[in-house]
Amino acid sequence: MFKTLYVAGLLLYGLFIYVLSDQPSLPGPMWFDNQDKLYHTGAYCILGALLWHSIKQWLDPSVATLALLSILLGSLYGATDEWHQSFIPGRSPSVADWLADTIGVSLAVFCLHKLRKHP
After folding, report:
1. pLDDT digit of tens for each residue in the chain (119 aa)?
2. Which of 85, 3, 17 is nearest to 47 (CA)?
């Protein structure tokens, strides 16, 4: 049952990110420079946690493989999201945004690795 829930959550969250990226602009005040990088990091931290749990439930890989797959897939999704934004009027792709995405996924993987129960 958890297999299906984690994957459904992952797919819905991926769709949520896609819908946000499909907007010409996002509402909200900007209180400091590069505030959007914080949003990217937070959003992809959630994605990283969902990837970790989904991969763990479906494949039951070693911890190293789990971490590597989670980071690679999350980073790849961030890259495709930035590419997608290149087609949206008012939006543009950014390497800095992609790096913030990758940092967010990596942060989730690091935290989940540290919090996991050791056998």
Report:
1. 667 888 999 999 999 999 999 998 877 777 888 888 999 999 999 999 999 999 999 898 899 999 999 999 999 999 999 999 999 999 999 999 999 999 999 999 999 999 887 65
2. 17
Q: Show the 3-state SS of the chain.
A: CHHHHHHHHHHHHHHHHHHHHCCCCCCCCCCCCCHHHHHHHHHHHHHHHHHHHHHHHHHCCCHHHHHHHHHHHHHHHHHHHHHHHCCCCCCCCCHHHHHHHHHHHHHHHHHHHHHCCCC
> pTM of this prediction?
0.91
